[in-house]
Amino acid sequence: MHAWPASEVPVLPGQGRDLDIHDTATGGRVALAPGPVARLYVCGITPYDATHLGHAATYNAFDLVQRVWLDTKRQVHYIQNVTDVDDPLLERAVATGTDWTALAERETALFREDMTALRMLPPKDYVGAVEAIPKIVPLVERLRDMGAAYELEGDVYFSVESDAHFGEVSRYDAETMGLLSAERGGDPERPGKKNPLDPMLWVAAREGEPHWDGGSLGPGRPGWHIECVAIALEHLGMSFDVQGGGSDLAFPHHEMGASHAQVLTGEFPFARTYVHAGMVGLNGEKMSKSKGNLVFVSQLRRDGVDPAAIRLALLAHHYRADWEYTQAVLDEAKERLARWRDAVSRPDGPPAEDMLESVRVALADDLDSPAALAAVDAWAEEQATRGGTDEGAPGLVSRTVDALLGVAL
Ligand code: 5CA
Ligand code: ZN
């Protein structure tokens, strides 16, 4: 699948800083130490509806990770998937009388547009679940042949007990896992499973649903977690630097994915670090397609909101925080954008080297984007009140904001 166009990332003077980030699996801060090519997998959308601000906030977090890495002169090998066949997509297609492939294509196209407008760096490979099926089938067969998967009325389940490390990503207790499994696509109530938490690897063909040749598995379609495992192993291999997504993916998705991959390869860990963004809410509830309380990036753009202001609204919140979107959040971002644009529109200003250093320090500190914004605010304030004579300063501020925050002034 094609991704979207990359915006150019200016190279900044001086030395970028290495990133310390919160790792869900250890529950604490870790110093990331990627090689010259940092490897990142971020879970992509299930394209049955347009990109909302919650999605955009999560992708913003991982865009910052890449910008920090690029600032340390590393290359980034970034992979993202598209869950272009799964229960919620098929259900929405039926409910709206739309062809499921047309629905997925339409929403994926809109997602690309939104990501481009928001200046999110594109993945090197953007891979759909459907196109990954030929890679998925042999993995499921292998798990079954190893005794780590079993059949139940034609469906194939992964046995969570086959991974000694199961539970180490989310670190939830058994009760929480049971509740979240039921809430997030699992089927703990289904009779005949070895462990109620066992997730499906291969869904046997069902009446009226799309299905593919599954070799010895029979016709069907892939389960959710194995999709991301097949794509990550194919493109990144084991022990890549960061697996990312929203906090709702820690369990079961990232937990199960890690177990699938660890059992398949006999290696540990799947990802060195698991990083999760907080949930964006609206009117007191998590913004979610199933609840319908959504603010779409594309709708804001249609309303004439500058994508740079949308991006500043996201950056104003720490990525790990759960926060509520309100009109005031957007208004504040618009005002900040106007102040910053005004401040860099002059030929000279106060020296900006300290501002660059403060932005670097802030982002290296678990992506503290609110602190990064405060550093730029301080420079803009100084420019507005006292001004300065440094001729390179406004340009350096623009390039810093562009390179490290993805905001074009
Ligand atoms: N296709 C799967 C991942 S393989 C999926 O979860 N798709 S999604 O469309 O439901 O979500 C895409 C990304 O947005 C995920 O990382 C998810 O955690 C994140 N996300 C969804 N809702 C919110 C929200 N309200 N706030 C923040 N992030 C969210
Ligand atoms: Zn995923």
From TrEMBL:
One of its GO terms (cellular component) is cytosol. GO terms for biological process: cysteinyl-tRNA aminoacylation; mycothiol biosynthetic process. Keywords: ATP-binding, Ligase, Metal-binding, Nucleotide-binding, Zinc. GO terms for molecular function: ATP binding; cysteine-glucosaminylinositol ligase activity; cysteine-tRNA ligase activity; zinc ion binding. Residues 39-334 form the tRNA synthetases class I catalytic domain. Zn(2+) binds at residues 43, 228, 253. A motif ('ERGGDP' region) lies at residues 183-188. A motif ('HIGH' region) lies at residues 45-55. A motif ('KMSKS' region) lies at residues 286-290. PANTHER family: CYSTEINE--TRNA LIGASE, CYTOPLASMIC (PTHR10890:SF3), CYSTEINYL-TRNA SYNTHETASE (PTHR10890). Belongs to the class-I aminoacyl-tRNA synthetase family. MshC subfamily. This is L-cysteine:1D-myo-inositol 2-amino-2-deoxy-alpha-D-glucopyranoside ligase. It comes from Streptomyces reniochalinae. The lineage of its organism: Bacteria, Bacillati, Actinomycetota, Actinomycetes, Kitasatosporales. The gene is mshC.
